C-alpha cells in the first residue's frame, strides 16, 4: 500500500466527522460522461446555450435544453452505482460518514445504499421536474414520456407554465437550504474527501476549501490535477473506484 493511502486510512480511523464531496468523476465508471475530461459533455455542446436565462426567455433554447436533457436521460436511466459509490456507502455502514455532498444529479449515491438524508445534492437532481409557474412536480420519467411521444417543449398540464428538471442550470441560483447545510457540514468536519471533481464550478468548489480553512484534513482523489491540490493533505491520482475500494477495504480490515 502506498504511504499516502496508509495515511488516509489512519485519518479515517481517527476522524469523528467525515464529509465526502463528489463530482462527475465519481460516476464516469458507471458510464456517465463528465463535463470537462476529453470526450466530456462540453466537447459536444456549448455551455453558453444552456444558461437559466436563455431557458426562461426562449422557446428555441428550451427545445435545445430538452434535446440534450433527453440524451442525458436515456444514457442515465439504467445506470448502476460503481465501486466508488459502493465504497462511499460502505463508509456510512461503518459509521464513518457524516454526509455526502454531491454535485451530481444522477442519484447514484442513494442507489448504492447511502441514506437519502445523508446525501446533500447541491446541484439538484435530474429525477424530478417542476413547473416554474405553479410549482407542480412531475417525475422525470413522466415528462420523458411526453417528449418521446413528440412534445418538443413540455408544459405544465395544470397551468401551462414552463417545466424544468430540478437540476441547477448555469446562472440559476443554488438551492439555499442545501448550500447552507453543505457549507455548515464542511466547516464542522475533521476530514473532507473530494472525489472526482475538477473543483472549478463555484460556489460548490469552495465547500471543501471551507473544510480545510476550518481545520479539517483535505484529501483529493482525482484522475487529473485540480486548482486546490496544493492545499490538500493528500492528493491521490487514480480511478475513484479503485482508490476508494482500496481505502475502504483497509479501513474495514482495521475496524472488524
Ligand atoms: P467535471 O467534469 O468538471 O470534473 C470531473 C473530474 O473528475 C475531472 O477532473 C476528471 O479528471 C475526474 N475524473 C473523471 N473520471 C474519474 C474517475 N473515474 N476517477 C477519478 N477521477 C475522475 O465535474 P464536476 O467537478 O462535478 O463539475 C461538473 C458539473 O457537472 C457538476 O456541477 C455536476 O453537477 C454536473 N455533472 C453531473 C453529472 C452526473 O450527475 N453524473 C455528470 C456530468 C456533469
Provide structural commentary.
The chain is an alpha/beta fold and 256 residues long. The protein has two domains: 1-31 and 81-123 and 174-256, TPP-binding domain (Rossmann fold), CATH 3.40.50; 33-78 and 124-167, SIR2/SIRT2 'Small Domain', CATH 3.30.1600. 38% of the residues lie in helices and 17% in strands. The protein has nine helices and nine strands. The chain has helices at residues 3-14, 52-57, 59-76, 83-93, 108-112, 140-148, 176-188, 206-213, 240-255, and strands at 18-22, 99-102, 119-121, 124-131, 137-139, 163-167, 191-195, 217-222, 234-237. Strands 3-2-1-7-8-9 form a six-stranded parallel sheet, with helices on both faces. The relative contact order is 0.20. The model has no long low-confidence stretch (mean pLDDT 94). The chain binds nicotinamide-adenine-dinucleotide. Nicotinamide-adenine-dinucleotide (NAD) is lined by residues 23-25, 27-29, 32, 34-37, 40-41, 103-106, 123, 196-198, 200-201, 222-224, 239-240.
Amino acid at each position: 500500500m502506498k504511504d499516502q493511502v496508509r495515511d488516509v486510512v489512519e485519518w479515517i480511523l481517527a476522524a469523528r466527522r467525515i464529509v465526502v464531496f463528489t463530482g462527475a468523476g465519481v460516476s464516469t465508471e458507471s458510464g456517465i460522461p463528465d463535463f470537462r475530461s476529453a470526450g466530456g459533455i462540453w466537447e459536444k455542446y456549448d455551455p453558453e446555450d444552456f444558461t437559466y436565462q436563455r431557458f426562461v426567455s426562449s422557446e428555441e433554447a428550451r427545445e435545445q435544453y430538452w434535446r440534450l436533457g433527453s440524451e442525458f436521460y436515456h444514457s442515465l436511466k439504467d445506470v448502476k452505482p460503481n465501486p466508488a459509490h459502493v465504497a462511499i456507502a460502505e463508509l456510512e455502514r461503518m459509521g464513518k460518514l457524516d454526509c455526502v455532498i454531491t454535485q451530481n444529479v444522477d442519484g447514484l449515491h442513494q442507489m448504492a445504499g447511502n441514506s437519502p438524508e445523508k446525501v446533500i445534492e447541491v446541484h439538484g437532481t435530474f429525477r424530478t421536474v417542476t413547473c416554474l409557474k405553479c410549482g407542480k412536480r412531475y417525475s422525470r420519467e413522466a415528462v420523458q414520456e411526453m417528449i418521446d411521444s413528440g412534445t418538443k417543449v413540455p408544459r405544465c398540464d395544470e397551468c401551462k407554465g414552463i417545466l424544468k428538471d430540478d437540476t441547477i442550470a448555469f446562472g440559476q441560483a443554488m438551492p439555499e437550504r442545501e448550500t447552507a447545510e453543505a457549507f455548515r457540514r464542511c466547516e464542522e468536519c475533521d476530514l473532507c474527501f473530494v472525489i472526482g471533481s475538477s473543483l472549478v464550478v463555484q460556489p460548490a468548489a469552495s465547500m471543501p476549501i471551507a473544510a480545510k480553512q476550518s481545520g479539517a484534513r483535505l484529501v483529493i482523489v482525482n484522475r487529473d490535477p485540480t486548482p486546490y491540490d496544493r492545499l490538500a493533505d493528500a492528493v491521490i491520482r487514480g480511478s475513484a473506484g479503485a482508490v476508494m475500494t482500496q481505502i475502504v477495504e483497509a479501513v474495514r480490515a482495521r475496524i472488524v
